[in-house]
């Protein structure tokens, strides 16, 4: 079997683009992958076009060797654009191999270790009464792990971190009171805070309010997270932006965080994700995969989640409180994972178990999209 084509499809779905990648072979077996570098899809397409010249004629079963060659065969290794491209390729190659052998992808990863995949769901309302009501509905529908978002920017795009802290804290306290102690509660601050601001946020919360704090500060400097670690005992969930096992290294080895928010479509695909999971297991760090993209990302992450021992919850954005990007029933995907209550069943078909309406995505157009550009009241830039 030989690779004959690699086709990237930057495709508008609901309110954002998804970069879907199809790899074809001379035996008619094909695989689908997805890139996770949202907002920079055209840059990843350029990398995929370059990699296509290297991969035509290659044996798609040589997944590990192809990974090493794409990452190491140039002087400038890695980087988010290149590993996002590698991720999509790696996922698609696993899909091909699973189909060719007639087994689900998790069988290529050591076999399944669980019969279904627990998820955490997120509320979509800002802190306030509606957020509490959404969380109660999620709990009633079976979710025992729920994530909130903080107060964001106002209608003019102005975001003041300390104002957000004060307005958010009181509703998190209320949420814990209303939902009880048996539910896992977390919040994603989307790296909007400084170390000092994050410390203030944590210290305003009574002990036990939160079970995890996701991405409170930017991750470029592990020493900053180490400093924050000394100022709070709330478990950290970090890693959705990491583009290799090397970025995870200081966080795992120094005991900085407790949950790895690994993104299959950014880190380097299933090949790299399994290495990070094993490394994390040795340090008793659980994986809590990032899953904000489309059904291909979800399918690949379900197989990963089924195969690793140190798993906590998979992020879902298709709960009744969100149905983010309409992913619950996207017509572009003729076969896709679907929630059963608060869990995903482990796929049983060969490959990823995903099918795409290729004719439909060929008719979709790419739309320029940029993340919101937030500013402080003084006009300076702040993080979205």
Report on this model:
- By secondary structure, the chain is α/β, with parallel strands linked by helices.
- It has 2 domains: 3-104, 2-Layer Sandwich (Enolase-like, domain 1); 107-348, TIM Barrel.
- The protein contains 12 helices and 14 strands.
- The N and C termini lie far apart (45 Å).
Mean pLDDT: 95
Biggest sheet, open or closed, and with what strands and sense?
A: 9 strands, mixed
What is the CATH superfamily classification of the largest domain?
Enolase-like C-terminal domain
Number of strands: 14
CATH class of the largest domain: Alpha Beta
Low-confidence stretches: none
Q: What CATH architecture of the largest domain do you see?
A: Alpha-Beta Barrel
Provide a count of the helices. Answer: 12
Shape: globular
What is the percent of helical residues? Answer: 25-40%
Please trace the helix and strand order, writing H or E for each element: EEEHHHEHEHEHEHEHEHHEHEEEEH
The oligomeric state is single chain
* Structural class by SSE content: alpha/beta
Query: How many angstroms does the end-to-end distance come to?
Result: 45 Å
CATH third-level topology of the largest domain: TIM Barrel
Query: What's the structural domain tally?
Result: 2
Radius of gyration, whole Å = 20 Å
Strand content: 15-25%
């Amino acid at each position: 079997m030989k690779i004959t084509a690699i086709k990237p499809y930057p495709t508008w779905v609901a309110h954002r683009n998804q970069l879907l990648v199809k790899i074809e072979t001379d035996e008619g077996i094909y695989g689908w992958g997805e890139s996770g570098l949202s907002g920079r899809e055209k840059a990843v397409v350029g990398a995929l076009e370059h990699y296509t010249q290297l991969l035509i004629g290659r044996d798609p079963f040589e997944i590990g060797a192809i990974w090493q060659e794409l990452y190491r065969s140039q002087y400038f290794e890695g980087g988010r654009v290149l590993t996002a491209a590698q991720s999509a390729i790696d996922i698609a190659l696993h899909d091909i191999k699973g189909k060719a052998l007639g087994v689900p992808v998790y069988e290529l990863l050591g076999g399944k270790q669980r019969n279904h995949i627990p998820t955490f769901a997120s509320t979509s309302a800002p802190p306030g009464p509606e957020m509490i009501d959404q969380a109660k509905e999620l709990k009633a529908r079976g979710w025992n792990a729920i994530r909130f978002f903080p107060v964001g920017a106002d209608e003019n795009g102005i975001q003041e971190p300390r104002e957000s802290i004060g307005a958010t804290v009181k509703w998190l306290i209320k949420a814990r009171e209303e939902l009880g102690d048996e539910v896992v509660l977390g919040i994603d601050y989307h790296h909007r805070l400084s170390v000092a601001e994050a410390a203030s946020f944590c210290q305003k919360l009574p002990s036990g309010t939160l079970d995890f704090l996701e991405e409170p500060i930017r991750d470029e400097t592990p020493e900053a997270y180490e400093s924050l670690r000394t100022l709070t005992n709330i478990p950290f969930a970090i890693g959705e932006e990491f583009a290799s096992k090397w970025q995870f290294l200081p966080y795992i080895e120094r005991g900085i965080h407790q949950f790895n928010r690994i993104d299959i479509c950014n880190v380097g695909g299933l090949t790299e994700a399994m290495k990070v999971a094993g490394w994390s297991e040795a340090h008793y760090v659980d994986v809590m995969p990032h899953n904000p993209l489309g059904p291909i990302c979800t399918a690949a992450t379900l197989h990963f989640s089924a195969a690793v021992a140190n798993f906590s919850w998979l992020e879902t954005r298709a709960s009744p409180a969100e149905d983010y990007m309409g992913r619950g029933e996207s017509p572009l995907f003729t076969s896709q994972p679907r929630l059963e209550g608060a869990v995903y069943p482990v796929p049983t078909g060969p490959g990823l178990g995903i099918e795409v309406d290729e004719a439909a995505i060929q008719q979709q157009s790419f739309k320029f999209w940029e993340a919101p550009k937030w500013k402080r009241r003084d006009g300076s830039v702040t993080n979205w």
